[in-house]
Amino acid sequence: MTTEDKVTNVSPLPPVAVLGSGDVPPRDAEALLDGAVLADSGVAVVSFTGPAVIQCIQGILTNDIEARGPHGFVYGAVLTPKGMIITDLWVARSGGTVTVYAPPEGRQALFDVFTRSLPPRLARPVERTDTVTVLRLAGPGAADVARRAGLAVPEAGAARRGAVGGVECDVARPPQDQPFVLQLACPRDAHHAVRSALERAGAVPAPSATLELARILAGWPRLGAEIDQKTLPQEVRFDELEGVSYTKGCYTGQETVARLHFRGHANREVTGLLWDRPPASNHPEIRYDDKRVGRVSSIAWVERAHRYIGLGLVRTSVTRGEVVTASGAPARTVDLPFQLPA
Hints:
By secondary structure, this protein is an alpha+beta fold. 18% of the residues lie in helices and 33% in strands.
């Protein structure tokens, strides 16, 4: 089995998510690459409790939150019955409570799934977006900064309660230190104390665009950029990102995902792009050998490399290292995550 070549069937192509040279200040970009940055993630937050909350979430999540134990933290997605991504999300478990952190663009669609799929008597949702601020630390020095601030850093793939600046927070660490190293969900009326403690320990306060740069450098997909309503998990690196389980059993869309994994391959995948001259952000098409082979989804200027980098969904027939025409300019296709000079 192979997936449908959706790239050639999309007209017009979706817009490109662009980070220009002024969106991430040079100081913040350097801190992201060498130290630690602290930024507001802006995600939507919903917690669930109930007598069957784990089983209910397992039935709609691509990943296996139960396998991570009572304090797991995983990346995954909620799918349509045909296996297309409705939204990606992070999920934390604390005993009998499961908390979902989702991009704001996917909030309404996710609530529609919750309403349709989760019986309130088994899994009751509590909207927390307006009462919680979700901060994220990124960069190679992020864990050390958190420890200097007095925080007990959870093990990879775990979520724990912890105090920073005298404020109790839900602290989570991804299985990989990408696209961020730590997430702190704290009461909105006390987040300034958390920020101050982390900044005193060495974190550089940064705009949310810095987290977007971290995402692109890590080759991580985002709803509204790499992910749209016609995207399958394997097309956006979910296997490499530990975002899908092939052993936990049934969930919505599981049949398509498993069939593609065991019997076929995706016809397109997220690929890194390197430009030597500026690409045209209003021209997302990727061409190779006079044929359309994909679309550019994200572009970012990286001061240290003195060049534009980006992500694109490219047909798997185009091998890594090939030069394509992407957004109107020559670009080399490369593996992800990006490797930048020290």
